[in-house]
Request: fold
Amino acid sequence: MRRIDGKRRGVRTGVVLAVLAVTAAVGGCGKTVSGNALPAGGTSGNTGTSKINTNFDKLLRECTVVAVDDIGKTVGDGMYVEPSFNGAVCMWNLTGGTAGSGMVTLSWYELGSLSNEKANNDRLKYVSNDIMVQGRRSVETHRPNDPDSCGVSAPAADTGIVGWWVNYRAGSQHGDPCDAARKLVELTLNLAR
Reply:
């Protein structure tokens, strides 16, 4: 009898623990959020129209907004540019030419903002400066003690924020990475549709 009672007690304890876990999980999930529900992508002003492309018909278009040849001309003479990743960000490897090797990265966040970029830079202990790119307030970003890389972010032509990072190989002979990143942002803003 003892063994059976021990099994029953263990089963009862397991059932009680499972009921407590479900109760805690269900109780923890309920939360009232104030405000008004919006459709996917939010709305732009009082028009009620979506400001975010929820048709997903231009996925990864940002990776082709600046031609590979133009990226190469911008980052250094005779630079070979090879796509290395297309996704949430677009990346290209750089080889040869006057600047040696490195990497270029493009990010395009439909819900991004300069204030969010600046806050993230502050959190990462990066140095941010306000600059102007094609008449738009933009942010130039440096990692501390890293003269070989720089990023520039600007409001995108339609919505959100676009940013380019240029990372040259440490110690290589290269131009100003901030100048290259700014020129890539200018090309993006000129070509964005």
